[in-house]
């Protein structure tokens, strides 16, 4: 009889934990889904340029590399949320020669030890035409597959000079807010969009 009472308590605890887990997953999905409401081209363009200017002001090395890049893809705000299963989404603009030449979204799904909600942005500096052409593959561009991508942290950003540039793409992550372990760009999929 004690066994059945213990099993009932264990079953209730397991059901409660499962409910909490599912609730957190739906909450995380809702946060990412809300971010997916497509913005207008003018709004994406404005937010992307503001974010790039802020990055340049804070990180002079990014500005030096940006001057040598053939194009820069800026995602000003990406929302990442999850509990064990996570998702992220954001929209950005591709800037070439000072003009916006395209709009893209970045999205990804992740699994593992993660919990929370975080927002951040990133800029990808395409250093050659070959890397830039890979961006518009029909199935989408996946970070970490194809051209080499170097994610610049604060230390690398300070020590990298334009003389030491030898990779296809340099990515700067900025404006991190919120707590969530496991921020990374690998596996993010980038797809061209037509904003409203």
Name the descriptors.
single chain, 196 residues, alpha+beta, six-stranded mixed beta sheet, 5 helices, globular
Structural overview:
The chain has one domain (2-193). It is built from 5 helices and 6 strands. The chain has helices at 2-35, 41-58, 60-68, 129-134, 154-159, and strands at residues 71-96, 99-126, 141-142, 149-152, 169-178, 189-193. Strands 1, 2, 3, 4, 5 and 6 form a 6-stranded mixed β-sheet that branches. α2 packs across α3 (60-68).
Report the β-strand fraction as a percent range. Answer: 35-45%
Radius of gyration equals 20 Å
What is the SS-derived class? alpha+beta
- Discrete helix count: 5
β-strand number: 6
Mean pLDDT across every amino acid position = 74
Query: H/E series, N to C?
Result: HHHEEHEEHEE
End-to-end CA span:
64 Å
Outline type: globular
User: Helix fraction?
Assistant: 25-40%
- Taken together, the total number of domains comes to 1
Stretches where pLDDT is under 50 for at least 5 consecutive residues are: 1-6, 17-36
Sheet bearing the most strands, described?
6 strands, mixed
Task: Give a quick rundown of the structure.
This protein is an alpha+beta fold.
């Amino acid at each position: 009889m004690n066994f059945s009472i213990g099993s009932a308590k264990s079953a209730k605890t397991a059901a409660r934990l499962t409910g909490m887990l599912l609730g957190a997953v739906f909450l995380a999905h809702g946060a990412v889904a809300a971010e997916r409401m497509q913005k207008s081209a003018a709004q994406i363009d404005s937010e992307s340029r503001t974010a790039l200017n802020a990055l340049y002001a804070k990180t002079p090395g990014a500005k030096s590399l940006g001057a040598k890049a053939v194009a820069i893809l800026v995602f000003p705000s990406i929302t990442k949320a999850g509990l064990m299963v996570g998702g992220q989404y954001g929209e950005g603009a591709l800037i070439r020669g000072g003009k916006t030449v395209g709009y893209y979204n970045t999205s990804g799904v992740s699994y593992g030890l993660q919990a929370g909600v975080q927002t951040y942005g990133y800029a990808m500096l395409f250093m050659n035409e070959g890397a830039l052409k890979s961006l518009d593959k029909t199935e989408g561009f996946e970070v970490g597959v194809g051209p080499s991508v170097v994610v610049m942290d604060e230390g690398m950003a300070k020590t990298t000079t334009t003389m030491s540039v030898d990779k296809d793409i340099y990515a700067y992550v900025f404006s991190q807010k919120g707590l969530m372990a496991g921020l990374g760009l690998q596996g993010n999929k980038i797809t061209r969009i037509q904003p409203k």
